[in-house]
Amino acid sequence: MYKKLLVFATIFILAGIFLKLYQNFDGSKTLNKTASYYAKNGASEVGSTNIVTAIVVTYRGFDTLGEVTILFVAAAIIGFFLKTNAKGTNRIRNLRFSSEIMITASKILMPIMFLIGAYVFVNGHLSPGGGFQGGAIIASGVAFFLLANPTLSVNHKVLSVLESTSGLIFVLLGIAGLIYGGGFLDNRVLPLGKFGTLFSAGIIPLVYSFIGLKVGAELSNIISSLQQIQKEE
Amino acid sequence: MSEINNKNTSGIEKDKFFAPENEKRTVTAPDGQIIEIDPLNDYFCGDAPRVHKPHKNKLFESFLNWARAESIWVLGFGTGCGSIELYPLLTPRFDAYRFGIQMAPTPRQSSLMIISGYLSVKTLKRVVRSYEQMQNPKFVMGLGSCTINGGMYWDSYNTINRLDYYLPVDTYIAGCMPRPEALLAGFNHLKKAIKEGKGEGANKYAENFEWYKANQKKIIKDWNMPDYNW
Amino acid sequence: MVNPIHIVSISLGVAFFLGFLRKANHNLTSTIMLLAFAANAFISAQWLWAFIYSNTEPFYIFTAGFRPPYSISLLMGRNEAIFTFLINIAGLLSGIFMLKTYLRHGVYAMMAFLGLILGLNIIILTRDLFNFFVFMEVSSIATAGMIILIKNVKSVSAGFKYIVASSLISILLLLGIVFIYYFGGSLNIDDMITNHLLVSKGAEVAVFLVLMSILLELKPFPANGWALDVYEGSLPGIGALLSATSATAVYFVLNKLLAFANPYWYNVVAVVGMISFIGSNLLGIKQKNAQRLLGYSSVGQIGLLLVILGFSNTLGEKFEYIAFGVLISHYLAKSGLFWLAGIVKQDNIKNWAALQKKPIFLFFMGVFLFTLAGFPPFPSFFAKWQLIMELSTAGMYAWVIGILFGSFLEAVYLFRWFGYAMKGEHNDLPMFELPWHKILPVVIGVLSVFGISYISKDWLPGGTSLNFIPLYFIAFMYLIDFAPAKVKNTIVILVITYYSWLVIPNYYNTDIIRLIFSSIFLIGAILTLIPGYLKKGSRKGFYPAALLMFSGLIGLVESTNIYQFFFSWELMTIGSYLLIIRGKYSMPHAFKYLLFSVGGAYFMLMGFGMAHAGQASLSFDILRTGVPYSSIIFLLIAIGFMTKLASLGFHIWLPGAYGESEADVAPMVSSILINAGVFGFIILMTHIPDANIGYFNIPYMLGWIGVISALVGNIMASLQEDARKLVAYSSIGVMGYVLFGMAMMSHLGWLTAITYTINHFLFKGLLFLAIGGVILRTKTFNMYEMGGLIKKMPWSFIAVLIGIITLAGIPPLSGYAGKWLFYNAIVLKGWYIQGAFIMFAGIIAFLYCFRLIYAIFLGQLKDEHRNIKEASVWFIIPQYIIIITIMLFSAFPQYVLNPIGNWLSQYFPNNALVWNGSLATSSLGYWNAFNIMMIVMGMFVVLLLFLLLVNRGSKKVGQFDIVYAAERPERPETTHMAYNLYAHYNKAIGFLITPWITKSWDNISEWVNTIANHTRKIYNGNGQAYALHILIYIVIAYLIINGGLF
Amino acid sequence: MGVFTKIPYVLLGLFILINYGLLVTGIFRRISARIGKRIGMPVYQPWINLVKLYAKRSSVYHGIMFYLGPVFRLGGGVGIFLFMPLIFGSEYFSNFSFAGDLILIMYFMFFGMLGMALGAGEGGHPYSAIGISRGLAQFTAIELPLTFAIIAIAIQYQTLSLTEIVAAQQGGITHWVLFTNPFATAAGMLSFLGAMGASPFNVVRAPQEIPIGPPVEFNSGFLAVLRTNAALLHIVEAILWMNLFFGGATNWIELFIKSFCVYFFALFVGTVFPRFRVDQSIRWYLKVPLILGILAILYIKFI
Amino acid sequence: MEYIGLITGFILVILGIWGFLTQKNILKMIIGFTISDTGINVIIVSISYLKNRTAPILNRPDLLTDTVNKITDPVPQALVLTAIVIGVGVTALMLSYALRLYQEKNTLDINNFKDLKW
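YS: structure for the whole thing
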């Protein structure tokens, strides 16, 4: 009780801090300097219809690299953290069988989900969405499949090769930007192409594709790691 | 009785009364060496007493004897009931200080030993030790009949009858008990003897050391000290 | 030059590439990982080299080829180069250290590790706020992974606490960053700084959130329970990483971000740092777990760094040097210690005694600990010195006190730990394994400490004047530590002789005081080293320690400024600590010694700082009357010296420290080392002759302290059973006289003090050598267990006899000179009451003198000493050299005292003592040493002849031939009257020596321990509570900074 | 006057004082006997005792320090004598006081004490050690008021030279320290009681409890030397106190009378008061005489 | 609209933190964290909102001119993407920790994991 009061008081003051932030917030009327720059030059410099994508992949591409790294590291950690040890392999938990609907739906929906995911990340520079979103869709497909077939498991080797390959290509593309473009992760390694088409915006579609694959693989990896340890119980 | 005949096989005769504190023992030195301690040899100077001849110059010697006579320091050793008569000497009534007599605290510093009354065997050992620790010249005064012939204790199982056998006595004071006046008379007698050069008891003891020692050992069974206590 | 961006590409490339090699041989993969770190380190090193040696411009990396603020930019400047270099090297070494772990866990662990190092690199390099956030998250997630490289419930729960805390912090950080973007319109740090984007009111709150989050990442006390659990629960290698790298990187970020914050943030940082520094060091005191202890120490050190950062504007151009000095010390020492923890594998600090099985590791540990505690010649010493000097110049004395107090607390637990390691019981402890990959980083760490010490000494003003030459020799001696002791002893004695030859003649006719003290220190060194020939084997560790002490001592004499002086003082402290702790049971005493020394040194440092404030020079001349606070300066420095003099109140370390040390170490420390305090007082008081605080005249107070020290020291000495403790307490007494003499501030007073100093050196050396020689034979310290040794050790007996005659001040030996001068001095000065009491103390000295000589040499010889031999000739030789010196000094004191008098005349003009040959005349009396000597000797010879004549036939008798009330003694033990010899004295005036001082120190320590123990209960182990602490910390900080909620 | 021409006078003075000391001892034995309603020993008894002791034919010793102890002890007494100016104004009987002043004499007392302590210590007798520990312990307390008194005198006359202290007290009885600083005299005389080892401060040599204490093992010639020293030392100490507080002496008669009176004081107290235990005597010295000593200094400083 | 988003975001953050600090169950704590995280994301998005503007996707030709006045702020939208992903990573890690902790002690009560303290 005492502790809860303390928590309450603390959070109350924290709310006060937020309130102060809120008080000073007056919905912007115009874009600020940075955003204006992107708005003005994003299309011409990067060649991407989706300005957000331009920012994510090019202007702040380095952040994206960090994001990918986070997912990668998290997947790696979960990989060795939840690594099954040989002793407990016999203890298979009695899992409930999934319903027929689930199994059937997953068989039908999974390819579609993969397809949608691929579409989302390939068109990241043209429409809302991108590598992360696409990767997440793919991974949810995998999750769906695993839910439907709890006894199955994903081939980690494939996933991690996919993951590593796409990560490595992302880095190599970045270096290519350093060598052939203006800097690390510059998208102008390839010609910008015609604005608004699939093969435009330099290497953005390429990068986003690999990010999509990578994110998909990593998330799947995490999900399957979590699933595997469930089986261990 | 078999214990008496129980001889030490190592060849050294071991008395039944050989005191345990004289047994050899071993100790470990700080560096780990084991040392054997033989108490009688290690702690004591076991030499026999020496005869100290009077000064060659008779006149000088008689001066010294006068000084010795006039400065008698008494070892206050109350061996028996006679000691009760000793202390009145120091009171104003008798005031033995007048005669150059005073009590000395230790044998080392005293010149006269008064055996005050009966002397039990147990005490004899102490008396011998104390006597031997006094420095030459030294005198012995036997107080009361007990020191002369045993007195009323003549047939006691544990008192000596005749002090003379064990120590060279310079003066006897007869009586049971002798009064302090008798003691004073005894002192005068002793003084006279000393002045006459007859106070050579210490030398007599040294000369007849074997005899005295034999007498003493005969009666003191648990002889736990060296032959001569320096 | 390789583009720094390749740090990223290499790390990530390798990390991704390792994914292909999941099933490959882990030796291969780990080698690849290490190569990646090496490559990173090479890149930073290359830039570092360029920045230092060719003044390269800082290098901007624009990612994506656009100019900032529109794209993310990285900056490789000099500082960035240094920090990334540190991080990459730590990664490399840590990787090597944990090679086995990585081999076991496979590529995933390596990936996480690469991610961690990459993240830290980027947060240093990046100039974009959000990018910082992203890579901060990379590193914290990676850290969360690294923690569980060892999988047990402790590490997993610690990891969870970590992740709870860091996610909470990241929420607030993200919130702050977003609002900074909102208010500032940019995420680029440079942009924010140059265009002052964050001036709007709301931005302040956003900045608050960001900076507080970063501060919290630095684990400030008390919102740092999670971090401590992580230090304790994770592998030591991870501890090293966290402590050395994460904190370093975040510290750098804080420095970077403070540039756009409101200037008051510097104060906030300083306050946070100070709370953290003192608080965590306080809590460290109760800590028994080695890794957690290191955690507390890490937090403390980071706190100190924050303080330094907070004062970066005050420190000006010195800031970088100071921060770097502290940081690098922390970095090297902490990672080294964590690695050692990984090697020794003992949780409890008491079990670090296992290190004794491999003494070289003790050496490593010692290097790290002394580095942490800021001892010379390690970089933190220079940094701390400069920090104190600069803060004092700025008048921030409260902060100076805080820093010194925190440092002291740190020294407490560090050296208790070191004591356990050095002297703890180690027979039951298992031997630790020593795989090469664990040794290598430690060795590199130690070498780097020395290397950086070597480099950093020259960076400070006055640093070049420090004399490092002895240290090289000490290093040499350490290298040949395996050699037999005799060889080393010879080398050392020859070198010291040569050094004396170089040094001492310089002072002849120029500086009598330095002549005397250099002679005491150097010739004393030679004399006390001679017994070393007795030692068999190689006597590991002794010579470097002894030489450290002696070089410190001679450094004191040779010093011409306060910097050199303090440097030498600290060297001496280390050396003497290492010497004292060599004794068998001396661990707690050496600990106390060190604490008092450190405490005293800090007082002194503060005094020096105050004196230095506002002065450009470092020379002793800045200590002078008339500068502001000169009285307080005097008091502070005097306290520093009093700890070494073991004046009352600061004496409790001495008896044990001297009493328990080795036989030939005791004279080194007691007859030689203690004079350092006297020398210090001479330096101090020649510059500040008078000091008053309020109505209190400090020299007057010192005089009373001297009196009470003398009195209590001597009474205590009289009541000791342990011979060496007796002599040790006697040192307290004699130093009381010296302090009193110095405090008199008069010609004769000083002359007395110096005479006493010389005498004390002579007789105390003599006594300790003699007693030490005897004790080596008897193997016991208790005097009542000895007795009658005169028959077996006549030479030692004569030495002790001469020693106590000198000590007691009995004519004709030189001790009397001191007494005579004393009477004259006190009457002329007018300190009658004190004077009488100090003379009373002098008479009490007689009690212990007698006890010492009687209980050991006279009385009954014990059975077990029946075949004992005379003390070793190596002990006898120096004793007799000292005896000859005493005799010469006694007969011809004028050749020493007259020049001293002349020297004193420049400070105390009325030359109170007129010398005419050997006749000294004061305005009160006169004294003819040579005549007294001759008369006494003549008389003695005549009387001896007379007695020989009287007792020509005397018979020498046996041991038990004593009059024993007509009985005979049974055993020597029961006949030797020596135990509790002065029981009646204790009964009479024992109340004077009620150990209320010891008790009050004990109470203080108890009190501190209790506070620490109660305070650390806030770390209740609950991750949620830790999170709450973080929030409360933020909230309170907000209330304070904002001055209320709104 | 050269050092060597002084030697005959020194020896003469020594001879006189030893004999005077023995005489005084004898007289006091006699007086104390009369107090006890006895007649007492003859006045010449001390001489006889000495002759007897020197004339002992045998003696024993325990070791080299035992042998040297009496030498030290006598050296202490003789040394004090040597450095003490006996007769004020007399070049012949100022001894070797050119070598040192009052402080030398003060500290030379330790010379004898140390010798005694060492000799007795080597005797190996526990009672010796007990006696010495008592003696030393008591002596520390005894010296304290004396130190105060001496400092007071030094303040008063601005000298530590005994000759000058005596010189300053010349010119009438009112110039004595006894009258110029009664507190100092009181403190000094109280410590004199202890220095003399008379009752109530004679537990050191409690003759029956610890037979005579330190000299328990000394015999014959050794004891004789000690007794010689005792005779000398006591009278020299009396002379020292006389010089300090009672104006010294300008001729032998004055010296005899004054030192006798000083000596008599100790005896008088000793006969009247019973014995203190060591801790009692130490505490006592730390009360009344210490206060007197402090008063002495305050008196001379402020009045 | 942006105010509503902002307030919602703050409330979510505070609610999440409340849960984070008071729930004993580790899973509930994690949920608290994700709620907070979501709250932050909502805040970020609200910040990017400008009234009467369209998303920064220039898929209509009219957006190509005077873009500055026609689109909302794209930067927070890019940031929120990153923030979400980071949140996912952290959540995943926390969940795996939760699993592991449950394996260690068969409980999910945070109070049972006090092995390290003081």
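YS: worth flagging: Chain E has one domain: 2-112.
IM: good catch. Also DSSP finds three helices and no strands in chain E.
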